[in-house]
Amino acid sequence: MGFKSDGSASASNDPTSTGPDSEEDTSSPFCLPPHFPIFVARQPIFDRAGHIWGYELLFRSCAEATVASFDNPDLATSKIIADGLSLAAGPMEKERKFCINFTHDLLVQDALYALPPEHIVAEVLEDTPPTDEVLKAIRRYKDAGYSFALDDYSGQPELEPFLDLVDIVKMDFMALEHVDLIKTTQKIRQHGQFTLLAEKVATSKSLQLAQALCYDLFQGNRLMRPRLISGRSLPSSKLAKLRLLSKLASQDFEVAELAQLIATDVSLSYRLLRHINSAYYGFARKISSLQQAVSLLGSDALRHWIMAAVLTELEPGPLGKELAFLSVRRARFMELISRCMPKPPGSAESMFLVGLFSMLDILLGTTMEQATSDLPLDEPIKDALLGEDSEYSKWFSLLNALDGGLWDDALETLQQADLAPETAAASHALATTWARQMLELSTEGQAA
User: Fold this and answer.
1) Within this chain, do residues 425 and 358 fall inside the same structural domain, yes or no?
2) CB crowding 179-215: b at 16 or more within 10 Å, else e
3) Structural domain ending residue among the three candidates 177, 210, 232
4) Residues 398-448: tens digit of each pLDDT
5) What is the pTM of this model?
């Protein structure tokens, strides 16, 4: 095995780490800031060769916290889901696994579907009751390609129903004496084929025992302590709205997934149901559920309404409404002129997206790099928004030229695309009328 002679895979002088013979220091106070800062610790998990197989992501309430001290475990995991994975998963870790704790409630609420199955191992906590509801949820997840680990196992009989479903068993090397560890390991091997992970390996003796028992994976402070990673993020409500916008603009979405995203926003859910039941659509029967409403999103008019509604909520007030209007007008203009081009740079949907997000940094009061960092945009679109070379770059510049009154620059771009100025002017007028109509519709019921 590729560990050093003293049993350690590497050394760490991280001041946020826990001590060498104790996995947790329970004296750390809860100190979660109200906004923006994100703190996540990641602890490597090693294979038998001493290579990093993956990481466990651990919630931290602040930079000074050395343990996961929190009042609400659902909230802690939600923060890992929303921001922790993107923060901890660097470009070199794309092929590695990330283990994240999931509570009973989050599992049955389908929270795991927010993460990619190919990179995630969901850890079932040792205090999770094996109810029929959670067992059925795990089976659904596994059918969708997700993997599971049973966390902090030490032979608890009440956890045995999980053993038929999990892929990894994380044996707690601090919970049992070595003799009992041997017995429990033999028993678990008789139950079925598992990847065995020795966790909370705090001493050289524990590591040697895990090696002798032929464990597959190893985790603990004797190998490497958790290392704190910090960052900043958009507020979750804004980030959810941006992801919703991206889903809608791509026209590539599952009805159930999109309904779930909309359901997290009470205001948008209310406004959608109110709007879709209005005389504007004239449905004979009342639409009474989000699932029904979202199933009708094949209608471009309804999709565009939601996009406009989301934009108006990113920055409330008169300024936000004006910025939303400009963004929607730009999006429609780009879509219309793309249909008039002999050789458009991309699909009409892609051009619409460039226009829609062209003022995202101003709407969010941040840099464009930060505004787009969590959006699953195609690289050419993101490059254009960031001012880098792309097939969409000159069209992004055209939007700025038109709104800035730089007519010579605008005419030059149109000539290069073999697009008549009269066509662009007509498209701009149509886009203005359409954007105004969308914004009027999108704000119906907003103050209700």
Assistant:
1) yes
2) eebeebbeebeeeeebbbbbbbbbbeebbebbbebeb
3) 232
4) 887 887 778 888 888 888 878 888 888 898 899 888 888 776 655 554 444
5) 0.48
